Amino acid sequence: MSAILKSEIESNGSSVQVLKEDGSLLNKKAEPDFSKEDLKKLYYLMVLTRMTDERFLRMQRQGRIGFYLTSTGEEAAHIGSAFAMEEKDWLFLQYREPGAALLRGFSLFRFACQILGNVGDLTKGRQMPCHYAYKEGHILSISSPIGTQIPQAVGFAWAAKIRNDNLASLVYFGDGATSSGDFHVGMNFAGVFKVPVVFFCKNNQLAISLPFEKQTAVSSVALKAQAYGIDGIRVDGNDLLAVIQVTKQAVQKARSGGGPTLIEALTYRIGAHSTSDDPRIYGDESKLEEWKKKDCILRFQKYLESKGIWSLGFEKEVQERAGVEVSKAIEEAEKLSAPSLDTLFEDVYSDLPQQLREQKNELLS
Ligand SMILES: Cc1ncc(C[n+]2csc(CCOP(=O)(O)OP(=O)(O)O)c2C)c(N)n1
To answer: Quick check: helix, strand or coil at residue 72?
Structure first.
């Protein structure tokens, strides 16, 4: 572990923290020097992300969309880490990081179009809901098979290193993905070739219904880094400021040739795995209640209140603005129709082979 990661941020014994659970500072020296505007922007984005989740989840229950994955409780982990990267860096998402895409300028309208799979969807209705792509914001298309994005992010960073592009990549995955072959492949290669990648595991302690302790024998994901000769660090995933600090240090190290870091952001999955899942069957009710009390938005809100930034009036403004933004995006997106059938045959061949031409004609007739 680098000296900075070890010394400048306090650890609460098991993970790095800047804010205590009541929103007060664990150590004043570790407080980042963010502008009021940045702090407000981060808070708004966290609230907007949660509200988006709530609205899309409701739409699924109303039968207006087929499927959705919420990120409730994990906003600090993914928004904080994305915020720590520079815009030129690429993000490789799993599927539970919508706030990272919104931060990069992916509009709520495009997001709504993607989950509806309509003509406004940049992926033309070909991907599962929540599996978007946003090239302009340097976000690679999301793949469903768990772990796929890990070697992709390593390959990207390796290419950037060879070309002296001074870029880094950040790859998100869950605790379950650390039991995949792709995790091993990516970590091993990155360690050997010291590629400028940040591995960001959101350990929400569940892989669908499987609790963390049943899918790996190790007590912490961060420890897995040792096997690949890279730095591993566990951060409180519900502490936005700690996540930003740790990720910033990891990316600075990556850029300066120090190689990759594995960050484990410890958090908890508050909602279901997806809208096709019912956690009442396997969930741990008392653990859920315990983690709900550690909510990342509430913690950051208390910090902002202590700095004179948050007030009831400010909250009202944020809620209203976010509500209008989400409603408008959904309303506009729902006006659009499905992509036409012939688009199914686009974007692979410049000249359609004979058998596909036949299939296309048959389908259209
Ligand atoms: C290779 C592969 N195996 C199984 C699945 C089915 N699957 C979808 S999500 C998931 C759990 C992933 O858990 P984790 O990596 O912890 O991420 P989380 O959903 O908790 O954010 C599984 C097993 C899959 N998509 N890909």
So the answer is: coil
> How many A from CA of 147 to the centre of ligand 1?
8
Residues at CB less than 6 angstroms from ligand 1 = 96, 144-146, 173-177, 204, 206-208, 269, 273
Give me the domains of the chain, ranges plus CATH numbers. Answer: 3-334 (3.40.50.970), 340-365 (no CATH)
Residues designated catalytic:
269, 273, 282
Tell me which of 127, 146, 182 to substitute to probe ligand 1's pocket, judged by most ligand atoms within 8 Å of the beta carbon: 146
E strands present in 106-146 = none
* Cβ-based neighbour number of residue 180 at 10 Å: 17
Distance 225 CA to ligand 1 centre (A): 20
- How do residues 4-38 score in pLDDT, each as one tens digit? 344 344 555 579 999 999 999 998 888 999 999 99
Nearest alpha carbon to residue 298 among 83, 84, 75, 81:
75
Complete DSSP assignment for 261-284: EEEEEE----S-SSTT--TTTT--
Give yes or no for residue 3 having a pLDDT over 50: no
Share of the chain above pLDDT 90, in %: 95
Tokens 């799979």, residue? 117
Q: DSSP of 36-57, one letter per residue?
A: HHHHHHHHHHHHHHHHHHHHHH
Measured in Å, residue 96 CA sits from the centre of ligand 1 at 11
Helices 240-255/75-84 angle, 10° precision: 30
Q: Which atom of ligand 1 is nearest to the CA of 173?
A: 15
Please say whether the beta carbons of 42 and 299 come within 8 A.
no
Residue nearest to atom 11 of ligand 1 (CA): 207
Distance 233 CA to ligand 1 centre (A): 23
Burial 310-330 (b: 16+ CB within 10 A, else e): beeebeeebeeebeebbeebb
Atom of ligand 1 nearest to the CA of 144: 25
